[in-house]
């Protein structure tokens, strides 16, 4: 398997499309080497005009590709696996699954082949090559794990983890985009209440969050070290922070992320 492989994304919704756009933007893949499938082809017209191949035939797309990315919802997966099982070939294909809550072994069993399945958990920032992507290949070769890591390193930061931590990675990094965006929205609303127009408050909150994240990414260390640099004695920051903590700020984040983690490990067997 080489980096020049052709890719089929079976089930191109929000995440599949963003993976394709990210890989094209980073220069990792030529759009012509990526085939996107979806049952409703009209919904993929904009990607065809950008040079991607589009199809509503999962079997044909899988046959042509070396890397098959499974991009449907967990509850839609069995139908796709039943379709492609007869054409999947251990010597040609590598299966990459972005599907939360379905193990690599379950996918292998359903395909009834001894084929390598690598789990990949990106987030929507892949569209701008800023994804945090977690990769698990507990039953895959080092060579294929390295190949997948190299591919996803072009669209952000890629980290190899054990598969049993995939639900936690899904909650922290993939759902995390929504969690951190909600904090930006709340901060924006506070800014508007204090007198800024919403577009001003949104720009201020977004750049401030970016600066906070970059302080940690570029300088390293624990967040509390940087927090100490902001909280002047008797100042407004500590007053605001303590008010937030009295109202359960850290606790709400921890509870929300860990609940999402539990749910991510159990998506097919829970109704709530
Ligand atoms: N949205 C996100 O931020 C992330 C999603 N994921 C995982 O990615 C997967 C997809 O999530 P989304 O893109 O959000 O869902 P989505 O519903 O937007 O995308 C799924 C797509 O698959 C298509 N589809 C369904 N059955 C099909 C079939 N038989 N053949 C071809 N296409 C078919 C649907 O029409 C839809 O466009 C899920 O398993 C989710 O757990 C993982 C990380 C992040
Ligand atoms: O909400 C979900 O289930 C999917 C997985 C992570 C992000 N979206």
UniProtKB/TrEMBL annotation:
Source lineage: Bacteria, Pseudomonadati, Bacteroidota, Sphingobacteriia, Sphingobacteriales
Pyrroline-5-carboxylate reductase dimerisation domain ranges (all copies): 163-265
Superkingdom of this protein's organism: Bacteria
Species of provenance: Pseudopedobacter saltans (strain ATCC 51119 / DSM 12145 / JCM 21818 / CCUG 39354 / LMG 10337 / NBRC 100064 / NCIMB 13643) (Pedobacter saltans)
Pfam families: F420_oxidored, P5CR_dimer
Matching HAMAP family: P5C_reductase
EC primary class: oxidoreductase
Gene Ontology CC: one annotated term: cytoplasm
Family that this chain belongs to: Belongs to the pyrroline-5-carboxylate reductase family.
Key words of the record: Amino-acid biosynthesis, Cytoplasm, NADP, Oxidoreductase, Proline biosynthesis
SUPFAM superfamilies registered for this protein in UniProt: 6-phosphogluconate dehydrogenase C-terminal domain-like, NAD(P)-binding Rossmann-fold domains
Ranges where the Pyrroline-5-carboxylate reductase catalytic N-terminal domain occurs: 7-100
EC number: 1.5.1.2
Name assigned to this protein: Pyrroline-5-carboxylate reductase
Gene assigned in the entry: proC
Residues that bind NADPH: 58
Function: Catalyzes the reduction of 1-pyrroline-5-carboxylate (PCA) to L-proline.
Pathway membership, UniProt: Amino-acid biosynthesis; L-proline biosynthesis; L-proline from L-glutamate 5-semialdehyde: step 1/1
UniProt catalytic activity: L-proline + NAD(+) = (S)-1-pyrroline-5-carboxylate + NADH + 2 H(+); L-proline + NADP(+) = (S)-1-pyrroline-5-carboxylate + NADPH + 2 H(+)
InterPro entries: 6-PGluconate_DH-like_C_sf, NAD(P)-bd_dom_sf, P5C_Rdtase_cat_N, P5CR_dimer, Pyrroline-COOH_reductase
PANTHER family with a match to the protein in the record: PYRROLINE-5-CARBOXYLATE REDUCTASE (PTHR11645), PYRROLINE-5-CARBOXYLATE REDUCTASE 3 (PTHR11645:SF0)
GO MF term list: pyrroline-5-carboxylate reductase activity
Cellular compartment(s): Cytoplasm
Residues annotated as binding NADP(+): 10-15
Any one GO biological process: L-proline biosynthetic process
């Amino acid at each position: 398997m080489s980096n020049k492989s052709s890719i089929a994304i079976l089930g191109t919704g929000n995440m599949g499309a963003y993976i394709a756009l990210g890989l094209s933007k980073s220069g990792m893949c030529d759009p012509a080497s990526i085939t996107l499938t979806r049952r409703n082809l009209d919904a993929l017209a904009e990607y065809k005009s950008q040079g991607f191949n589009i199809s509503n035939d999962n079997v044909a797309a899988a046959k042509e590709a070396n890397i098959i990315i499974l991009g449907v919802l967990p509850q839609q997966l069995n139908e796709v696996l039943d379709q492609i099982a007869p054409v999947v070939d251990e010597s040609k294909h590598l299966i990459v699954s972005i599907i939360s809550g379905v193990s690599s072994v379950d996918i292998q069993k359903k395909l009834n082949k001894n084929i390598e399945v690598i789990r990949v958990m990106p987030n929507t920032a892949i569209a701008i090559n800023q994804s945090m992507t977690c990769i698990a290949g507990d039953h895959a070769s080092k060579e294929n794990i390295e190949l997948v890591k190299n591919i996803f390193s072009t669209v952000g930061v890629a980290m190899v983890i054990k598969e049993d931590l995939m639900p936690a990675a899904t909650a922290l990094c993939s759902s995390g985009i929504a969690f951190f965006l909600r904090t930006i929205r709340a901060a924006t609303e506070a800014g508007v209440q204090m007198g800024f127009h919403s577009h001003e408050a949104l720009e201020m909150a977004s750049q401030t969050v970016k600066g906070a994240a970059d302080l940690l990414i570029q300088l390293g260390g624990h967040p509390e070290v940087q927090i100490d640099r902001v909280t002047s004695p008797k100042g407004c920051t500590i007053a605001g922070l303590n008010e937030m903590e009295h109202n359960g700020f850290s606790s709400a984040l921890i509870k929300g992320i860990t609940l999402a983690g539990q749910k991510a490990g159990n998506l097919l067997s829970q109704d709530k």
